[in-house]
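Hey all, quick one. A colleague (J.T.) asked me to put the N,N-dimethyl-L-histidine job into the tracker so the inputs and the structure tokens live in one place instead of scattered across chat threads. No bug as far as I know, just bookkeeping. Sequence used:
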Amino acid sequence: VSTIAASHAGLRDPELAQRLRGALGTRPRRLPVECFYDDLGSALFEAITYLPEYGLTRAEWRLLCRHSSDIARLVPSALEVVELGSGSGRKTRLLLEALARRRPLPYRPVDISAAALEACRREMAGRTGVTVDPLPMPFLEGLSAAIEMRAPSSAVLVLFLGSNVGNLEPPERDRFLSAIRRRLRRGDALLITADLEKDASTLEAAYDDDAGVTAAFNRNALARLNRELGADFDLAAFRHRALYAARERRIEMHLVSERDQTVRIPALGLVIALAAGETIWTESSYKFRRGDLAALGRAAGFSGTAAWQDDEWPFELALLVAE
Ligand code: AVI
């Protein structure tokens, strides 16, 4: 996991600070997705992937186990892989091994978290045929850098896994997929995954687990505002809430203020009054239907080559090719 536009300046990055001011300063109060993923947030997310309630990661793992060799057959053999949001690289290892069986494979993970890239490098160490070349950058910058490094005769396979596409609002998502396409050549490919719709109680449990790990992940976003921007959020006065909005097909995560309170965020020059029951909307996680990924890909200039689903935890993996 990582972010699309964060930088090493953390929340003090001027562009992010500006967006934060807008998102928190007006109602409904929101937080940009970048707020989750400092090193602690990335570690908490890694813990989420082990929760019994959070079936997404295991479903993706099953799909990659089952279909790595199909994917290897469908993509050109002279290939370079760029992964947007590598995380620890655990899930990608299998696929890379299948691809590297044919010939040496340059692998360029793009992630803003140096800790994630380091874990990824360790995970790949000693895998025959895979050379790791980490790019500590926001996604699109990293993709552009990787494209500049490509050997002229190689195709590029971009990985955008983890159902990360679900954390983008639809207009932003469409722009992002088009921005990926614009950086690619005809015949390059995009391997992408998305969590599929399922019943509300299963989804809500996945985002409000019994051990409270997701609640900690959610609260860490406010804890970061305290740490990095000198804010004085009283974390104990916020309750974690996850609800499935079926019409919009998204999980919404909120932090609910348990009382009337005033919070100061000096580095943003912001003082906000929260009423009891008012929420800070911290994340949306969109859910999809079978075939949605191919349709999104088509709108961005890709054709859908293949798609596979997991039936145990409905989840989709799709291979799209740049037209
Ligand atoms: C990274 N992303 C796909 C996760 C999701 O499921 O939307 C983030 C997450 N938020 C709470 N739990 C997991």
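Adding what we noticed when we looked at it: The mean pLDDT is 94. The pocket of N,N-dimethyl-L-histidine is lined by residues 1, 48, 56, 162-164, 166-167, 207, 214, 217, 283, 285 (CB under 6 Å).
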